[in-house]
Design brief:
One of its GO terms (molecular function) is transmembrane signaling receptor activity. The protein is mainly α. It folds into two domains: 2-154; 218-438, Methyl-accepting chemotaxis protein (Helix Hairpins, Orthogonal Bundle), CATH 1.10.287. The chain is 91% helix and 0% strand. It has eight helices and no strands. The chain has helices spanning 2-28, 34-62, 66-101, 107-154, 169-310, 315-433, 440-458, 465-485. It is rod-shaped and about 250 Å long.
Length: 486
């Protein structure tokens, strides 16, 4: 700016110097026509008005008052510059005509005046060009700065420090770019911290879901084994129930058989008792027969004695008495043998009766035991039936648990896949956001705040989801506000 100011001052001094020389030549020159003096006076008049205006424009441009400089240039400078150019062109045309007329007389004066006039024109053009350049620079420089800032932001560098001076439109543009840069830096900082928090949380969720999936798969496998074992146990209990029912039927049949056997043994005992009674009666009858034989023997003996006493007359009676005695002895002997046999039979019948009584008692005990076994088998059958029903219910519950566990395993696998996808997306977001460059002073507090918000929910039972939601909502609102302001 100092160099440009010095160049403008030098050009202004050069114009003044050349105008002064031009006025001196007009005033001291011999035979200067009135028209030339009038044209020179017109140039002096326009330049006297144009010089202060040009200097004011330069001053405003150097003071960064571009709006005022542009207004002054459009309203005052351009008309005066056009009038100056017109006056110089008229004077140049006049001098050209005058030179053509007096080319032989005043070649030297013409050349000097023409050179002076050309110098004035060149100086005026140089001054106008310098002023236009300064004004253009005052407009283009902020625009270039804005373009450079926009390119820097587009490259992801948000560390640019934007300085704004002035209150014109370009300054407002730079201020808007500064606000946009600061807003983007804040938003990107929060998004970066949030993406890192989300990446950490999603990685933890993915790891937890993977662990839960493995545990659920193990539980599902255990439930499958349990279900298979329960099915086998159900089949075994069912078989036991069927065996118990069959045993109950056999026990009932055995009880019936034992009862009938007891009744038969009872009848046998009764028959044996009747046989014993009959044998005793037969023994009594044999005893009577034995007594009769004994008495017959005695009578025969007495008859023989009497026949012997009778002599010849009793000999035939003695023979008969001997025969009777022999028969009586044989009857007594046979009766004795029969008595012995009957006694043996009675003893054996008594022994058999005792054995039959014992057998009856044993059969009765067997019947009672069989009844008890039958009752126990009935209870076992009922318990086996109830156990079979209960195990079937447990088996159905285990099957339902197995089905629910399989569904939970599928849901956990889906959640694990979703968590891994979210982790991949958060990593992608983190990589995208990492392309932006931020100030460490503005990024670190946001990251610390985000890390605090992420760590807090992990100690609770609700999981990290609530912390993420609380972190995400203000970011969206702030980003929308920043973009709306932009």
């Amino acid at each position: 700016m100092e160099l440009e100011k010095a160049a403008v001052m030098k050009a202004d001094e050069d114009v003044k110097f050349r105008l002064q020389k031009f006025d001196e030549m007009i005033a001291t020159g011999p035979d200067v026509p009135e028209k030339a003096r009038n044209l020179a006076a017109s140039i002096d008049h326009v330049e006297s008005a144009y010089g202060p205006v040009a200097r004011d424009i330069v001053r405003l441009a150097l003071e960064h008052k571009r709006d005022e400089a542009i207004i002054k240039m459009n309203n005052e400078c351009r008309p005066l510059l056009a009038a100056l150019m017109k006056a110089t062109e008229e004077y140049q045309d006049y001098t050209s005509i005058r030179t053509a007329q007096k080319i032989e007389e005043s070649t030297e004066d013409y050349n000097s005046q023409r050179n002076l006039l050309l110098g004035i024109c060149v100086s005026a053009l140089l001054l106008g060009t310098t002023i236009a350049f300064l004004i253009t620079q005052s407009i283009v420089s902020p625009i270039r700065q804005a373009v450079l800032i926009a390119q820097t932001i587009a490259k992801g560098d948000l560390t640019t420090q934007i300085t704004v001076t002035g209150k014109d439109e370009l300054s407002q543009l730079l201020a808007a770019l500064r606000e946009m840069n600061d807003g983007l830096a804040e938003v990107v900082g929060r998004v970066r911290s949030s993406s890192e928090s989300i990446a950490t949380g999603s990685a933890e969720i993915a790891a937890g879901n993977t662990d839960l999936s493995q545990r659920t798969e193990g539980q599902a496998a255990s439930l499958e084994e349990t279900a298979a074992s329960m099915e086998e146990l159900t089949a075994t209990v069912k078989q036991n129930a069927e065996n118990a029912a069959q045993g109950n039927r056999l026990a009932l049949s055995a009880s019936d058989v034992a009862t009938r056997g007891g009744e038969v043994v009872g009848r046998v005992v009764h028959t044996m008792r009747e046989i014993t009674t009959s044998s005793e009666k037969v023994a009594e009858i044999i005893t009577v027969i034995e007594g009769i034989a004994f008495q017959t023997n005695i009578l025969a003996l007495n008859a023989a004695v009497e026949a012997a006493r009778a002599g010849e007359q009793g000999r035939g009676f003695a023979v008969v008495a001997g025969e009777v005695r022999t028969l009586a002895q044989r009857s007594a002997s046979a009766a004795k043998e029969i008595k012995d046999l009957i006694g043996q039979s009675v003893e054996r019948v008594k022994a058999g009766s005792a054995l039959v009584d014992e057998a009856g008692t044993t059969i009765n005990e067997v019947v009672v035991s069989v009844k008890r076994v039958t009752d126990l088998m009935g209870e076992i059958t009922a318990a086996s039936s109830e156990q079979h029903t209960g195990i079937e219910q447990v088996n159905q519950a285990v099957m339902q648990m197995d089905e629910v566990t399989q569904q939970n395993a599928a849901l956990v696998e889906e959640a694990s896949a979703a968590a891994q996808s979210m982790a991949a997306q958060s990593s992608t977001l983190k990589e995208l956001v990492s392309t932006f460059r931020l100030h460490h002073s503005s990024a670190e507090p946001e990251m610390a705040k985000a890390s605090t918000q992420v760590r807090r929910p992990t100690s609770s039972k609700n999981g990290p989801t609530s912390g993420k939601k609380i972190l995400a909502r203000p970011l969206v609102g702030k980003a929308e506000a920043n973009w709306q302001a932009f």
